[in-house]
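User: Here's a chain of 137 residues. Predict its fold as C-alpha coordinates.
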Amino acid sequence: MSTTERKHRPLERFWPYQELVEEPTAEELAAIDPELHAALFGARDLPFSITVVFGVFDGPGYPAAVALAKASAEYRETGRDDAVRHRARYFSPEAGRLRDLWVHVGEAPGVEVLIDDRPVPHARELWLPLLWFTLLR
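Assistant: Prediction complete.
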Protein backbone atom coordinates (compact mmCIF):
# COMPACT_ATOMS: atom_id res chain seq x y z
CA MET A 1 0.00 0.00 0.00
CA SER A 2 1.44 3.35 -0.97
CA THR A 3 1.44 6.29 1.36
CA THR A 4 0.74 9.06 -1.12
CA GLU A 5 -0.78 12.29 -0.01
CA ARG A 6 -4.17 13.25 -1.44
CA LYS A 7 -4.06 16.16 -3.86
CA HIS A 8 -7.82 16.80 -4.00
CA ARG A 9 -10.19 17.30 -1.13
CA PRO A 10 -13.95 17.03 -1.95
CA LEU A 11 -16.39 19.71 -0.88
CA GLU A 12 -18.35 18.97 2.24
CA ARG A 13 -21.66 20.09 0.74
CA PHE A 14 -23.87 17.43 -0.77
CA TRP A 15 -25.58 19.74 -3.31
CA PRO A 16 -22.86 21.99 -4.65
CA TYR A 17 -25.02 23.51 -7.39
CA GLN A 18 -28.02 24.90 -5.60
CA GLU A 19 -29.07 25.69 -2.08
CA LEU A 20 -32.33 23.83 -1.48
CA VAL A 21 -34.99 25.01 0.91
CA GLU A 22 -35.41 22.62 3.82
CA GLU A 23 -39.04 23.39 4.66
CA PRO A 24 -41.92 23.14 2.17
CA THR A 25 -43.79 26.31 1.31
CA ALA A 26 -47.44 26.87 2.23
CA GLU A 27 -48.42 26.29 -1.41
CA GLU A 28 -46.57 22.97 -1.49
CA LEU A 29 -48.25 21.85 1.73
CA ALA A 30 -51.68 22.80 0.33
CA ALA A 31 -51.03 20.67 -2.76
CA ILE A 32 -50.24 17.51 -0.77
CA ASP A 33 -52.82 14.75 -0.93
CA PRO A 34 -54.88 14.79 2.31
CA GLU A 35 -53.95 11.21 3.24
CA LEU A 36 -50.25 11.91 2.72
CA HIS A 37 -50.57 15.09 4.78
CA ALA A 38 -52.18 13.11 7.61
CA ALA A 39 -49.42 10.47 7.46
CA LEU A 40 -46.61 13.04 7.50
CA PHE A 41 -47.95 15.66 9.89
CA GLY A 42 -50.85 13.99 11.69
CA ALA A 43 -54.54 14.53 11.21
CA ARG A 44 -55.69 18.09 10.60
CA ASP A 45 -58.30 19.50 12.93
CA LEU A 46 -60.93 20.31 10.31
CA PRO A 47 -64.70 20.38 10.72
CA PHE A 48 -66.90 17.90 8.87
CA SER A 49 -66.46 18.29 5.12
CA ILE A 50 -67.71 16.83 1.87
CA THR A 51 -65.40 16.82 -1.14
CA VAL A 52 -66.57 16.42 -4.72
CA VAL A 53 -64.01 15.19 -7.25
CA PHE A 54 -64.89 15.33 -10.92
CA GLY A 55 -63.14 15.29 -14.26
CA VAL A 56 -63.74 16.87 -17.62
CA PHE A 57 -67.20 16.09 -18.99
CA ASP A 58 -69.21 17.15 -22.02
CA GLY A 59 -72.09 19.46 -21.46
CA PRO A 60 -73.02 23.05 -20.88
CA GLY A 61 -72.64 22.69 -17.11
CA TYR A 62 -68.88 22.05 -17.13
CA PRO A 63 -67.69 25.70 -17.13
CA ALA A 64 -70.18 26.57 -14.39
CA ALA A 65 -69.12 23.52 -12.38
CA VAL A 66 -65.46 24.53 -12.57
CA ALA A 67 -66.33 28.08 -11.50
CA LEU A 68 -68.35 26.78 -8.52
CA ALA A 69 -65.57 24.37 -7.58
CA LYS A 70 -62.99 27.17 -7.63
CA ALA A 71 -65.21 29.16 -5.26
CA SER A 72 -65.25 26.33 -2.69
CA ALA A 73 -63.45 26.45 0.64
CA GLU A 74 -60.57 24.39 -0.76
CA TYR A 75 -59.98 23.75 -4.44
CA ARG A 76 -57.28 21.71 -6.14
CA GLU A 77 -56.80 20.81 -9.78
CA THR A 78 -54.65 17.84 -10.78
CA GLY A 79 -53.69 16.31 -14.09
CA ARG A 80 -53.52 17.76 -17.58
CA ASP A 81 -55.64 17.95 -20.75
CA ASP A 82 -58.45 15.36 -20.65
CA ALA A 83 -57.14 13.82 -17.41
CA VAL A 84 -57.84 16.94 -15.34
CA ARG A 85 -59.53 16.27 -12.00
CA HIS A 86 -61.16 19.03 -9.97
CA ARG A 87 -61.36 18.57 -6.20
CA ALA A 88 -63.64 20.92 -4.25
CA ARG A 89 -64.11 20.72 -0.48
CA TYR A 90 -67.20 22.14 1.20
CA PHE A 91 -67.92 22.45 4.91
CA SER A 92 -71.39 22.05 6.48
CA PRO A 93 -72.42 25.74 6.34
CA GLU A 94 -71.75 25.70 2.58
CA ALA A 95 -74.41 23.08 1.80
CA GLY A 96 -76.19 25.41 -0.64
CA ARG A 97 -73.04 25.97 -2.69
CA LEU A 98 -72.33 22.23 -2.67
CA ARG A 99 -75.84 21.56 -3.96
CA ASP A 100 -75.33 24.13 -6.73
CA LEU A 101 -72.19 22.27 -7.82
CA TRP A 102 -73.94 18.91 -7.55
CA VAL A 103 -76.67 20.07 -9.93
CA HIS A 104 -73.99 20.38 -12.63
CA VAL A 105 -71.81 17.34 -11.88
CA GLY A 106 -74.24 14.83 -10.32
CA GLU A 107 -74.88 12.94 -13.54
CA ALA A 108 -71.35 13.23 -14.95
CA PRO A 109 -69.33 10.01 -15.18
CA GLY A 110 -66.57 9.37 -12.66
CA VAL A 111 -67.74 11.79 -9.97
CA GLU A 112 -66.51 10.90 -6.49
CA VAL A 113 -67.94 12.09 -3.18
CA LEU A 114 -65.56 11.97 -0.22
CA ILE A 115 -66.58 12.42 3.40
CA ASP A 116 -63.72 13.99 5.39
CA ASP A 117 -61.40 13.12 2.46
CA ARG A 118 -62.28 9.43 2.52
CA PRO A 119 -64.47 7.40 0.20
CA VAL A 120 -67.46 6.23 2.22
CA PRO A 121 -70.12 3.75 1.10
CA HIS A 122 -73.35 5.41 -0.03
CA ALA A 123 -71.87 8.91 0.04
CA ARG A 124 -73.92 9.96 -2.99
CA GLU A 125 -77.12 8.23 -1.93
CA LEU A 126 -77.09 8.89 1.82
CA TRP A 127 -74.72 11.66 2.90
CA LEU A 128 -75.62 14.23 0.26
CA PRO A 129 -79.40 13.96 0.83
CA LEU A 130 -78.80 14.24 4.59
CA LEU A 131 -76.87 17.42 3.96
CA TRP A 132 -79.68 18.76 1.75
CA PHE A 133 -81.96 18.55 4.81
CA THR A 134 -79.88 21.25 6.48
CA LEU A 135 -81.00 23.60 3.69
CA LEU A 136 -84.62 23.38 4.88
CA ARG A 137 -83.85 25.37 8.05
